[in-house]
Amino acid sequence: MSADDRVKLKTILHYWIEHNKEHSQEFREWADKIAKLGEMETAKELEQASREMDKASESLSNALRSLKEGG
Predict the structure, then answer these.
(1) Are 17 and 64 in contact (CB under 8 A)?
(2) 51 pLDDT exceeds 80?
(3) Closest CA to 13 of 35, 21, 51, 37
(4) What is the pTM of this model?
(5) pLDDT tens across 60-70, in order?
(6) Residue 28: which of 2, 8, 47, 55 has the closest Cα?
(7) What angle, rounded to 10 degrees, do the helices at 3-36 and 40-69 form?
(8) Is-contact 67 6, C-beta < 8 A?
(9) DSSP readout, 4-71?
């Protein structure tokens, strides 16, 4: 991988992590809203999506850390 590619990937990883955090928060907000309307199954699925997005962000953070460490 070229040095330019490493820099680009670091930038993209930072962006994806932040973008995922925004989505995860939005999913939780909608889960709360829809739960108040009694749509518990929908709320449950949105909460699950939020957890999965958080897990994806964790993997992306691990990838970024690995890239920074050179391994």
Answers:
(1) yes
(2) yes
(3) 21
(4) 0.86
(5) 999 999 998 87
(6) 47
(7) 160
(8) yes
(9) HHHHHHHHHHHHHHHHHHHHHHHHHHHHHHHHHTT-HHHHHHHHHHHHHHHHHHHHHHHHHHHHHHT-
